[in-house]
Amino acid sequence: MEHLTQVLLNVFNPATREQSEQFLKSAEQANYPMFLLSLAGELANNEKPSQARGMAGLILKNALYAKESPERQLQLNQQWLALDPTVRTQIKQMAFATLSAADAEARNSATQLVARIGVCEIPVNQWPELINELLKNMKLPSEQVRMATLQCLGYLCQDMPGTYLAAFSNPILQAVVTGMAKDQNEQIRLYATRALFNALEFARRNLETDSERNYVMKIICEATQSADPKVRQAAFECLVKVAGLYYRHLGEYMEAIFSLTFNAIRSDPAEEVSQMALEFWATLCEEEIDLANEWAEYNEDRENNDPPAVPSAQFIEKALKFMVPLLTEVLMTKDENQDPDEWNKVMAAGHCLSLFAQNVGDSIVDHLMPFVRDNINHPTRWQNRDAAMLAFGSILEGPSKEKLAGLVEMSVPRMLEALKDPSLQVKDTAAWTIGQICELHPESIGTKLFEVMGALYEALSDVPRVANNVCWALHNIAKADPNAADDSKPTNHLSPYFPKLIQKLMETSAREDADENNLRMSAYSAVNVMIQNAAPDVFPDVLAVVPTLIQRLTAALGMTCNSTEDREEQYDLIALLCGVVQVILQRCGGLCRPVVPQLMGLFVQVINAHSATVQEEVLLCIGSVASILEAGFEEFLPHFMPFIQASLQNYQAHSVVECAVGVVGDIVRGLEKRVVNISEQLIGLLLEALRAPALNPKVKPSILSALGDVAMYVGQVFVRHLPAVMGMCRDASQTQVDLSNPDQVAYLNELREAIFDCYTGILQGLRSEHQGDIFLQYVESVVAFITIVEQDEDRYDGVTRSCVGVIGDLASTLGSKVRSYMHKDFVKHLIRDAINSPDAATKQIGEWAKEMIKPI
């Protein structure tokens, strides 16, 4: 490509960046192989400017890399592998040669490119010699080449599945550890230490061998004493990873590690090093907490569980008397000008203390409380008062309620008093600690609720960082009673304070400085939770908020936006406002009818926003209106169906599709039989979404449930779609997942529940129009699915309920025609499980299904 060098340089110039990027995109689309070859040539050309070479390598690497999308990454890999092998070989040769370039920027870019190509090709045996070639580089005298090679090995170890590197673990580990030795250049040590961090997992075989592990640990420990803080930080990162991967072997090294981390936390001049030493102890805590949970699970049911492979060494318990004083010492080093939103050493120490409390429970209280008592009222140093409150707030989760109850109750007046401390930092920490108390020990507020609410009301006027934590405290008080939103109770604990607080929170959300410290979002979040938990006696106060929201939403829609940032701020505000509106619609229901027309007029404007978040929020609002108006929603369908259709087809934004599917369910349940007028359109859209390969599979369950909703109300109209829908249900019922992965097990249960919900809707719809026999052709496959589900040891209660519901529907709809199935053992087992369920709804379905089967 002519003028490529200038185009690459123009990317650095804001005035020409967009034009240059467009040129490069067009070149890639016009001739992909030539585009890549030209960039590789630019990267490898020693005569070209440094910036152009670096940019060429970066663009070439990015042409092969999709960071956030595994599906897109697979496409890019296939596109690369489909190139003429000669072209690929030329690019690889130029990229590898650039690892030896004198130009640092080109060299750095080449390390990423070579690694990315390796990650793509080695798994398909297309560049098997790469690792050996890199290891040869490690024997060259040039420090620059060795640095680049270590960097490249680090990227490879980071991104390559370990199975493909395990065969090279010996030479890679040897090269990396050699690079970390004390006699090496500090820059080489840095890249070697980073490479080791990425190699620790796939080198498990080596590190399970005592002699090799001892040597690696010796080298890591030595690196923590490097003169270069970056090397020290990287070495402590390695220790953190070792704690996570090789906990069982840590005992041999803990004496040395304790000394190294203790000294680094207390006195390393580089804060990032101290933070990483603290992270070691945090990781150790997490490992021991996980182990404690595993042992507890095992002890609950020893007959059906295997014991954990590793016993807890109780490192935290043993180190408590040394580490608690050290952590509180760090807490007292807070700087007055410290950015509260930026992670720092003090925050890391507080987090560590919190994990210690979760690990050892009651033991930490006696170690910590003397420090709290001695410093919480310190007359001269705000740092001491702040540290005492932060320490106390950090241990409120872990110790027993009995151990903490008296201490928490006594602390409340002091925390409220501290909201007026002359130090901003102390006020901020006091507000956070009150939030902790309200979340973890709400019962300790008890008779002090009046004082707490009054103090928090006043503190909402404080600076944004304090007011932000006050909003969080109010959020926690509002949700403290799980039965607060029980409509059978006319009032609750919030009611006496609700009118003034909701007004104050709305004022806080509109403060001129509300964009600082996340205050606006926190205020609206507190508003939402208060409304969700509002008792009926304050519904008039809830509805009084609506005119303000309408006014603000109208103003937000009319905002002038001169930049992308302005537009994003506008969308964020609209989303927040729609969020509050939706909560009010949901909580007050039919009482909102008078304002629905005005709100729907605003929603028509909002749906034009090109923001997934805004679209989700307005869809939730529309769904709530549909639930309120029921059949009355029909008049709004012409205005909103195009938007709902577009949302259902927005496969790249699966959360938008999921919200749109929820709205379909709300509309169907509201319109009931009248949904027949739009049923063909809805069924077509839902089936199209199910077939779309670009749509995230997580949305499938909600689509299947929605199809069941439609089928229930349109009966005969659904018949022509039965083959397609039942085929998709059959395919979904055959889904296989990794049963060792809890998230995948949860998804499988959600999917199965949705399949049964779909069957239920179809059966009930056909039965209502006396067309049940149409379903006979599908009974065998449905029953086969039920037998599979009955044998599933990981079956959730919701699946049992839905499955037994289908059994009852089959019996009710088809009667004696399914007699041969209804008295099988698997049916009896499922009904028994449902009847024995602790969930009242599941028990009721079980009893009903049992009655449906009796006559046949």
TrEMBL record:
Source species, domain of life = Eukaryota
Pfam families named in the record: HEAT_EZ, PDS5, TPR_IMB1
Q: What is this protein called?
A: Importin subunit beta-1
UniProt key word Cytoplasm: yes
Q: Which Gene3D superfamilies match?
A: Leucine-rich Repeat Variant (1.25.10.10)
Alphabetized, the UniProt keywords read: Cytoplasm, Protein transport, Repeat, Transport
Importin N-terminal domain location is: 20-101
Q: List the InterPro entries.
A: ARM-like, ARM-type_fold, IMB1_TNPO1-like_TPR, Importin-beta_N, Importin_beta
Q: Which SUPFAM superfamilies match?
A: ARM repeat
- Subcellular localization(s) per the UniProt record: Cytoplasm
